[in-house]
Design goal:
Coagulation Factor XIII, Chain A, domain 1; 463 residues; 3 domains; six-stranded antiparallel beta sheet; five-stranded antiparallel beta sheet; mainly beta; globular; 13% helix
Length: 463
């Protein structure tokens, strides 16, 4: 795996929609110190995922001091990737930027990239940025990062990298070179005035699975803030190789100012979705009036994934939190009637749980909900609402499992073992009615039900 170092290029367009009007004046106008960040996850190898971290900022944001060749600014970056209380990856670097004598400072964007690998797990990524020439100028970005091993038995899509340009290239030393292309990221995810074309890059995996020779359909679409599909395109693609780079463009010049979702799907000839990946982006047009989906970006809620959820989706997402939400939080949410208030509540709910020794990441939590539904759903109950689903969601996948099928002596039961919780704990689930409804009857976890005679009382069949 190639780990790339940082480098910068200049992009002649606005850096973020809330700063666009302010950027028309000089850098001395007090432009906010803000670094935009995005990332994409790609297959690395069987042991780890390859992460590309993209960041960008306006040239006029820096504090400059005289230098022999003109004016010099510099940012100091510090990246920490935590897994619980442990540091999984850490790096510091500096980014100097020189304005030659006689050259004006502009609002063009400077873009960089860092890459690294991580094994499967739940991580917290914290990027801290300081202006070397004015230490009071600081910014920080927090990202909850879930790394899952790529499946080997089905089609899969990487994250989508949104870009300002993608061109055929021969310079393999370029920071943005990959797969014979020069792929320039757009960390702000902003398009519109000065940048009417959205470029995208992703990789599809496992296309040659089971020697399937039929075509696959690559569907790209743009959805507005309420989920309406406003742009769509289908492209047939032969399954010639196991992995395939997907690049293309979308003309977004006709879209209004607002928040949108770019979606990529792999479908078969029956239009069954085999894999899907999404990325939020923004449209800003100078002089236009924003629609109701975009107001002030000073609120991080509007930059979060919760800002595009429908009321039904927000309600469902909060219902999924029943195992970790307090009675007060449930009562407060029930009293909300406005969609934006619910979106804000859900954003703040997860923000409160994102830090500290017992942190819970929303992406990891919802991933466990989905896994629980897939594995434990029966005709009588959704998987995430079952006892096994609840334990899976709260504590993750077991380290070991013992399964005991139905016999003349006992009902079916399972024993889950977790080695790294409270020095080692077990959970015992019993299907007393022999209909697939496994109920928790005993655990050595201090916060769960405890019944030493679980086998005699619940597993052993009456004679």
């Amino acid at each position: 795996m190639i780990m790339r170092n940082k480098i910068f290029i200049l992009l002649g367009f606005i850096t973020f929609f809330v700063n666009a009007q302010a950027q028309e004046s000089s850098y001395q106008s007090g432009e906010p110190f803000k670094v935009t960040v995005d990332y994409a996850r790609f297959y690395g190898d069987s042991l780890q995922t390859y992460i590309e971290l993209y960041y960008g900022f306006s040239e006029s944001m820096l504090k400059y001091i005289p230098d022999s060749g003109g004016l010099k600014g510099q940012l100091n970056f510090k990246l920490d990737v935590k897994k619980g209380a442990n540091t999984a990856y850490s790096k510091e670097w500096i980014v100097p930027h020189l304005i030659p004598t006689g050259t004006e400072i502009t609002s063009q964007s400077l873009v960089g990239l860092q890459s690294f690998g991580l094994p499967e797990g739940e991580y917290s990524l914290i990027l801290r940025i300081t202006d070397e020439n004015m230490q009071s100028k600081r910014d920080s970005v927090y990202i909850a990062l879930l790394i899952s091993n790529y499946p080997v038995d089905k089609e899969y899509l990487s994250d989508i990298e949104l870009c300002t340009s993608i061109q055929t290239a021969n310079d393999k030393q370029s920071l943005f070179y990959k797969n014979t292309l020069d792929v320039v990221p757009n960390p702000s995810k902003l398009y519109g005035t000065g940048l009417p074309i959205l470029y995208y890059y992703a990789i599809a995996y496992n296309l040659a699975l089971n020697n399937n020779s039929g075509n696959i359909i690559v569907r790209t679409s743009v959805l507005d803030a309420v989920g309406n599909e406003v742009i769509a395109k289908d492209k047939p693609k032969p399954r010639l190789y196991n992995a395939s780079v997907e690049v293309g463009t979308v003309n977004v010049s006709a879209l209004r100012t607002g928040i949108y979702i770019f979606r990529m799907q792999l479908t078969d000839s029956l239009k069954t979705t085999l894999a899907q990946s999404e990325k939020k982006f923004f449209i800003y047009k100078h002089g236009s009036t924003p629609d109701s989906s975009l107001t002030s970006s000073s609120s991080p809620v509007l930059e979060s994934k919760y800002s595009v959820l429908t009321e039904e989706e927000v309600n469902q997402n909060f219902e999924y939190t029943k195992y970790i939400s307090t009675d007060l939080e449930k009562e407060q949410f029930e009293q909300l009637t406005d969609l934006k208030a619910k979106q804000k509540f859900l954003y703040e709910f997860w923000k409160r749980r994102a830090t500290g020794p017992n942190s819970i990441l929303d992406e990891a939590y919802y991933s466990r909900v989905k896994q629980a539904d897939q594995q434990f759903t029966t005709p009588f109950r959704s998987g995430w609402k079952s006892d096994r689903g609840r334990v899976w969601i709260l504590y993750g996948q077991y380290d070991e499992i013992e399964r005991f099928s139905n016999s003349t002596e006992s009902n079916p039961y399972e024993i889950w073992q977790y080695h790294n919780i409270q020095g080692g704990v077990i959970f015992v689930f019993i299907d007393r009615e022999n209909i697939g409804n496994y109920m928790l009857m005993h655990s050595t976890h201090r916060d769960e039900m405890h019944e030493e005679l679980w086998y005699e009382k619940y597993a052993l069949k009456m004679r």
